[in-house]
Amino acid sequence: MAYRWTAFPKLNDKKIELLSQAINVSKPIATLLIQRGIETYDEAKKFFNPQLTDLYDPFLMKEMDLAIERINLALASKERIMVYGDYDVDGTTSVATVFSYFSKFTANIEYYIPDRYKEGYGVSKIGIDYAAETGVKLIIALDCGTRSIELIDYAKSLGIDFIVCDHHLPGDELPKAVALLNPKRADCPYPYKELSGCGIGFKLIQAFAQANDYSFDEVCKYLDLVAVSTCSDIVEIKDENRVFVFHGLKKINEDPCIGLQALLQSYQIKKEYEVSDIVFGIGPKINAAGRIADAKSSVKLLIEEDFHQALLHAKTLVDNNTERKDIDNDITKEAQEILEKSVELRAKKSTVLYSENWHKGVIGIVASRLIETYYKPTIIFSEVNGMLTGSARSVKDFDVHEAIGACGDLVIQYGGHKYAAGLTIKKESFVAFAERFEEIVNNNTTEHLLTPEIVFDLELDFKDINMNFFTVLDRFKPHGPGNMTPVFRTNHIKDAGSRIVKDKHLKLGAYQSGVKMDGIGFNLSQVYDYIEEGNPFDACYSIEMNEYKGFRNLQLKIKDIRASELS
Fold first, then answer.
1. Average pLDDT over the chain, rounded to an integer
2. Does 300 fall in a domain?
3. What CATH number is given to the structural domain containing 422?
4. Which has fewest Cβ within 10 Å: 140, 232, 293, 501?
């Protein structure tokens, strides 16, 4: 796949100079910090040394006082409480956090995760009816509920109160809950808006402990789950989320909860786990239960206190994930075969596919995989109860949620955000919907937009790369949206003994500005002949520490290589 390379917009040289002097770092490091919104000594200090004391007062969140008042009443009156959450990683970690914490104060508490297929996303009538039947008087909804206007009214008519802890965008009307804890509501003064659902659940228990003079250390026991949620839900890792992930990873590496200990054993034993281990290793296993079987299995694991029992729960999730991978690999292969056989479909600027045999739980993953190959706004549909349920994914700068909304009468319901959405249409509307969606994409994209982009932070010479530079660079972790791994560009590089490994990867030996560097370019074997002939080339890459058989050296993780321009 061809990439377009884009330089980060040029910054003010004076700002770079001032920050470089203020914190005694090189200008490249100061530039990287300013790109990430860090412009002063105090901001840099917080960035490099995130402290739990940097967390905001939870009572700054609108209606937090009402939530705590209602929970205290429920505990004092021994009311039955239900902790209700979505079936994905954010929802299940949220439920595990809030349920485990409040279980220390009452036995009259249970948790509930809706069935993806019978109930769908968010608060359900089935769940509310079950709560009423079992005598629940208070539901704490996590990672859902902001738009559940009618259902929360229905619960109120049955004598059930709601506290909603959510991070999804509100509509014009807010639910009549006892408290809606959502920093994204227009009237909420909370200083940070991008918490995950579990992050808001954490603020709830933090506020409860603060109001009742309970130990904050007990609250911090759940930071590992907050980190898993924050990383897996792909929210930005800035500000308060950076504190959560920094200290949550510390807990995962030093003293994870029993459930995560068991799950980590099924993943791989490492000296130090990072964000990527959560996103690609731990998160998918927790998610798999809700995709393939019952998401309650994930909660059972995360609240378990017996290690041997936790190992059994972890095995269930690992088995679910293995099945999920087999299914999504099969569907991806089928979808690719459909596209490869059709010149007409490949010529379109969108991909919209459907099969009645495709599993609803993995179609979002399949859409993402197709974008990796074809880089177009993509919607994959499966059939559920005679209707088509779709999962949409998008490319940078194209609002797929808005595009679906523009399909108007052909869409029964939809929700989501700019880059990922879900929708339902009638089976007989598929062809008309695909045509309408293609028309909207065609009218609102260009070839430029449909070419994947690599944004590089800085141009470097190899002589700028040394252990001192990397030591500071390594402290930019944890990486994620809002603080992505820095990407660099170097020009006019010459080959210094490159080779192909495992038939498709490039093991780079490279020479520039008098310095030799090693690198690895996954799936980049196609450029080998060009560089091996001695042609000068440019590269975009990140820098990492390579450890092999006890030896450590800096290496470039190559993102793309292109021929150097004549100069």
1. 95
2. yes
3. 3.10.310.30
4. 501
Per the CB < 8 A criterion, the answer to whether 531 and 537 are in contact is yes
Distance CA 407, CA 420 (A): 16
**CB of 167 closer than 8 Å to CB of 202:** no
Q: Kindly report the CA angle at 492 between 487 and 497, in degrees rounded to 5?
A: 90
Q: Is the pLDDT of residue 416 over 80?
A: no
Q: What letter would DSSP give residue 12?
A: P
CATH of the domain at 311: 3.90.1640.30
Same domain, 141 and 165: yes
* Residues present in the chain in total: 567
**What does the pLDDT read at residue 566?**
66
CA-only gyration radius of the chain, Å: 25
CB distance 179 to 74 below 8 Å = no
The β-bridge relationship of strands 80-85 and 109-112 is parallel
Pairing type for strands 505-512 and 499-501 reads antiparallel
The 3-state DSSP class for residue 190 equals coil
Q: What is the three-class DSSP state of 432?
A: helix
467 and 532 housed in the same domain? yes
283-298 residue pLDDT tens: 999 999 999 999 999 9
Burial of 537 (0-12, 13-18, 19+ CB in 10 A): buried
Question: Under a CB-based contact definition with an 8 Å cutoff, are residues 85 and 95 in contact?
Answer: yes
What local confidence, expressed as pLDDT, does residue 311 receive? 96
Instruction: Count CB neighbours of 255 within 10 A.
Output: 11
90-116 per-position pLDDT tens digit: 999 999 999 999 999 999 999 999 998
φ/ψ of 119, rounded to 5, equals -115, -25
- Could you tell me the residue range of the domain that residue 466 belongs to? 454-563
d(CA 4, CA 395): 14
As to burial, measured by CB atoms within 10 angstroms (0-12 exposed, 13-18 middle, 19+ buried), residue 266 is middle
Strands (E), 86-196: 109-112, 136-142, 161-165, 179-181
CA–CA dist 270, 432 (Å, integer): 51
Q: Where are the alpha helices (DSSP H) in 24-124?
A: 27-35, 41-48, 64-76, 89-102
Q: Structural domain tally of the chain?
A: 3
- Predicted local distance difference test score (pLDDT) of residue 271: 85
Q: Token pair for residue 194?
A: 């991008």
Nearest to 378 by CA among 346, 400, 359, 411: 400
* pLDDT at residue number 218: 98
pLDDT of residue 212 exceeding 70: yes
Secondary structure of residue 37 in the 3-state scheme: coil
In the chain, what's the furthest Cα-to-Cα distance?
Answer: 79
Residues 162 and 224 in one domain: yes
The answer to whether residue 31 is domain-embedded is no
Tokens linked to 526: 């196609």
Above 60 in pLDDT, residue 71?
yes
Q: Is residue 287 domain-shared with residue 351, that is, in the same domain?
A: no
Contact criterion met (CB below 8 Å) for 199 and 230: yes
